[in-house]
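step: validate -> pass
step: tokenize input -> pass
step: predict -> running
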Amino acid sequence: MYKILGQQSKSQVHDFPLSETASSNSYVPSEFISQAVFAGGSFWALEAAYGRVEGVVKTVTGYCGGSIVKPTYREVCEGRTGHTEAVKVTYDQRRVSYRSLCDAFWETHDPTNKEFLNFGISTHQRSAIFYATEEERRQAQQSKIRRQMKLNRRIVTTIIKSDGVDFFTAENQHQKYHLQKHYRLCESMNLRSTEQFAESTIACVLNG
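step: predict -> pass
step: emit ->
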């Protein structure tokens, strides 16, 4: 079972040290770190949603699949590359499981939205879970079945093997989209570059 963190008020962030805010997640031994990739409509909303899941250490928005290397947001939106907006989630296996991340996925968007069936035709967005191992495929499929049993409309989410599917990091303005609206706060935390936004645990939390 996943746990949703309470939302942090941006205006109250300085009521406590930022270093303490991030300390519970900022360092995790590499043997406990795993990554997962999800696509569910807009990557702005999807990234914010996973930032609220306890145990998620980092998030980064990007483009998954497709036929060209390092596509731009404009190219992806025009539907000429075959990529979809996606989010790569880095998480601490001791605090949250892959199964729980899949269960949280259904709450981030409407997985029954038929518009996702038009991926590659009239939309570049889709609902998809990208798995790396057979065990992840099984967990994703079981999670989908559990969710489907609660709905009266068919889930259109696809479960895709990630082998051979590249993930390209999106441009800076698409990282921690909601947090970047608070530019003074970002400056106070020395968050400017794409890498800084992608690697920051506190930015991951505050963006949610």
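step: describe -> The domain at 10-207 is CATH 3.30.1060.10 (Peptide Methionine Sulfoxide Reductase; Chain A).
step: cleanup -> pass
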